[in-house]
Amino acid sequence: MNLSSLSTSSHPLSPYGWDEGWEARFAPHAERGLLPGRVVRVDRGLCDVITPVGTIRADTEFVVPRDPMKVVCTGDWVAVDPEGSDPRYVRMLLPRRTAFVRSTSSKRSEGQILAANVDFAIIAVSLAVELDLGRIERFLALAWESGAQPLVVLTKADLVPDAVGLSYLVQDVETTAPGVQVLAVSSTDGDGLDVLGAVVSGGTSVLLGQSGAGKSTLANALLGEDVMAVQTARDVDGKGRHTTTTRNLLVLPGGGVLIDTPGLRGVGLFDAESGVGQVFSEIEELAASCRFQDCAHEAEPGCAVLAAADSGVLPERRLESYRKLLRENQRIVAKTDARVRAELRKEWKRRGAEGRAAMDAKRGVRGSSRP
Length: 371
Description:
Elements: H1 20-30, E1 35-43, E2 46-51, E3 54-59, E4 77-80, E5 90-93, E6 99-103, E7 111-116, E8 120-126, H2 133-146, E9 149-155, H3 163-176, E10 181-184, H4 193-200, E11 204-208, H5 215-223, E12 248-251, E13 257-260, H6 273-279, H7 281-287, H8 304-311, H9 316-336, H10 338-363
């Protein structure tokens, strides 16, 4: 097959997201006789890659890096050996446009890439259980940091007894997710699926959420067939076993590509300061009016953020969540960034000194010789 003679729209990989940009990136590898492909599944050093000549099984041995952020993952575009090679190898990983990354439980604070080259990050949240707004904010921070456009999908909307109650739940999440579209859908009766299908038809989407959030059911509804296995969630907490155990890339019949992921028990931030700022954009805007440029919004005079919280304009829950995620992100970054560690130690010493001075003042101690 002479791929160079094909336009990007008629290219065999166009349903998987191939475009002129990827074609330009791949050009040097095409000159070497390699084939372009997109990774649809990864499993223990091997991966399934869709190529212009079909799906092949390829070994990732030649692109195993020391940096865990550069391992091959679902959604990657790669250069693989041509037909006739046995075994077939992934020879090159094309630079990613976006990457959805979370931190691992490793003490070295390594990142884990869940999906690459994603346009939309669909955060599935079940309405069968009480909304956890803090968890939604956490997912949103990672989504914004990835470079993808977040979208919150409230699943199992048919379980909410009345339209007014559903409207209030949607409004609660919209307040938590400024600048993000929030959709209530039901895979059972089809409500909202047409709108969701229209959104995801425009690119590659990754489906994220806890076990029991209804991701596999939602994926099947978008696919129009039962491709993903489904298990019933527990009534007590809405959680289920990990029905999906690998990340799979699937072409949607209405256009677009969907990456389904296993349910995530933990969603740790990984160097997501700008993502946190995007989630709490109203706090970032208020902070611009603080008296001090480096205001920590804790007890500083002239703090516009604290003033908004005291007046009720800014919900206290939002401020606490903002502080929590920023602190967590600082700890993660500090594990691998010596400069940030030094700045944190300096800040901790300063606050410690202020705290001791305040205690001495309360006790009436003057000229304390404390270090």
